[in-house]
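Submission sheet (multi-component)
Chains listed below:
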Amino acid sequence: MTALEAGLLGQTLLLVLAVAAALLTPTRRRSRISGTICTLLAAAGIITGAIALSGGTGSLSIPTALPLDPLVLSPDRLGGLVMMVVSSVGVLASLFGIGSARVASASRTAWLSMAVFLFGMQLVPAATDVVSFLLFWEIMTLGSTALLLAHHATRGTVASALVWYSAMSQLSFFFVLAGFAMLAGLAGGTGFDRLATVDPYSWQASAAFLLLLLGFGGKAELVPLHVWVPRVLPEAPGHVAAAMSGAMVNIGVYGALLVFVRILPSGPAWWGVLIMALGGVSALYGILQASVASNLKVLLAYSTTENMGLVFLGLGASVLLRADNATAAADAALVAALLLMLSHAAFKSTLFLGAGAVARAAGEMNLDRLGGLGSRMPWTAAAFGAAAMGAAALPVTSGFVAEWMLLQALIHGSRVDGEVVSVAASVAMPLAVAVIALTAGLALLTFVKAYGIAFLARPRSQEAKQAREVPVIMRIPLVLGALLVIVLGLLPGPLAVAIGSAVGPELTPDVRTIGLAGVDARGIDAVLDPTTFVMLAGLLLVPVLIVLFVSARRHPTRISPLPWAGGGSRLRPRMQYTATSYAEPLVRVFDDVLRPSRDVEVTHVGESRYLVERVHVEQSVSDVVETRLYRPVLNLMQQFGILARRAQNGSIHRYLSYSFVALLVVLIVVSL
Amino acid sequence: MFTTIYPQLIGLCTGTLLLTSALMVWRHSLLASIRLLSVQGFALAALVAVIGLEEGEIEVILVSVLVLLVKGVALPWVLARETHATTRTDEAPRLNPTAALLTVALLTILSYVVASRLLAGETSISAHAAPIGLAMVLIGFLLLVTRRQAGSQLIGFLVLDNGIATVAFLTSGGVPLFLELGISLDVLLVVVILYVFAGRMRNKFGNTEIDQLRKLHD
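Outcome: structure written.
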């Protein structure tokens, strides 16, 4: 038995153990025991992934009673990388769950489905054929659904969110199934190596491409299949949301990588254009919605749509450039997409865990009622801050490296040796750069809002005022996640080399380590060395800081009364910026896209027109995709349902008549 | 001597079966229908007995006695007992008698057409009479569809069952004793259960109109 096989078997055994633990342990100790085993399960995933990434081989074959080939699990390097990423998030989420799971999220169902969910996610990248891929995909989906379902007793909104989630995940499963079925029918087998023999220029391959893109896009929360995200993630507890938004979306990306890098790496150029378009629209739409959201979890959920959009943008650019024979830039774009996926997993899981900690401490997710948590929850604030920097793609975080690499690839992509590679590329690349620029700006704004409103200034409600720091067991994953965000940003070189080896052996991105763990993408002449940068910046900053410190000591700050506080110097919490007011200019600028609904209600004092007793302002931004695309379809289905009710009115006579007529029709057909 | 009158006996029995079925569609009174059902049970038993005599098998004769007891005596007795015990309401079917009888004629023709296709190779006398069984199945179904009262529907169900039995006896020369015993007891059980059910309906709604049963309740 090789190490890889042992790793796969170990994960399976740990799943059995986790299920048993969830079922058998008493309520008081359940979270501790089950959480620990879930952590071990995820840790086994990290080890297995690392073995696969470093080139270990081995396979686990599961015979089936179905008339199919046995299911073979054997992760390649790419699968290993994704397994590692997913499992790392799993470790963080499980650790956090030990401390945070209470009542419903500490129930048997919750811990059992958590283990099943993690197991499904970790083994999707190990599949080597369509059937096992879909099997683990469904295990993952069912696990996450049951995990959310565990909370439905406590909150009424969970049920409707779950209906959306189930419908959308089944829709994306259907797309994936149909796409793979088309490819399998064409190739005459279900193994991924057989699918690779399909001619990517045939119309069936293109149809399969469209179906698979929609299916994987749905899992990766891309527009227009993202509608479940802002409903489901706010209902999920922090660690579950972290596992879904930090890890599960990566499975969607892995599916896309599998198809567009492994199985059909030489697709036509329009595939790339389409993926880029989908990614670009998702990125813009996601960050726009995130920037105006005032619920912290909704904000984070939409930000996932944005980041996954960027990942797909990079992936699409890679497909397009490869079709145009700009291999170096294509490889760089691919590496950038994977870097972004990695960094997103790190910062988004930390952010959701931070949101979970805030929810536990303040019991509130509405940014307009938070504030001042920085001094009350210093650990959470620091971790959330580091992760928010990653999400805003600020330097020395992993987010910055990824977006920088993506921009480099796009800027250098449309030309090879000064020649334009193709019309499509020369139009698409500048547009993509513009999209990324706009996205990056809005992301900065969004996360300044998320961090600033929630953690700085003064508390805006009693709950926020009474918030306490979360226990140590919850701080550990927060700090670990934040460290990951920074460390991944400081070591882009080894990371890019690992990613380069993962997408091989057919594709060999020309990246290597330079300087102090810096990255050098030689094909596009791009060099980045954040560690050196940090050290240089430190050297420059030290004298500046000394000067500042000395001058501050010489001139002590004077507290002057605020002129706009009505002469008084006491600042009330209500005088501060809120999330809504901070996003107000944005809402005005993007009024046509967002279409917010505003409701201003003014109560006057007595008969006076000039004295106002209170003003109630309510603003809500609805999801345009949902109201314009899904509502009409749903209404149509409802109409059909009303029609169908006429045929199904519950009368026994009618049902008997149906069978009688059916029998007569059969007899008449027989006698013809 | 028996071989010469055998076709006529078969014709007589099956003719009685078809006639009673048609009469059941025509009559609206529940008690009249139950009497007709009893006659039909006797005719079916006679048919089985004739087939048994022709083939000279004791077992089939025993089956005929069983059919006589269950379909000719027991079932009508159970039905009649329940009906006497309650207020008698006459059936107001969803199809008027003329249209119903016309439909019966059409169904009989259809079953002959179908049987001529299905049993094209068969030359035995009993196989020639098989369409009657099929016609009874269809007529039973028609009763189920058009009658409103639970009791009348039950009669439709029994006619349907008689039709199936007729087809079975005519085409395969009878079924084994144990099988027939099982089927007959099953039917008896179903009838008893349905009658209990109808009684509950009557307690609940005051009548047994099936149309009341439209809504599902927890």
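Remark: Chain B has a mean pLDDT of 83.
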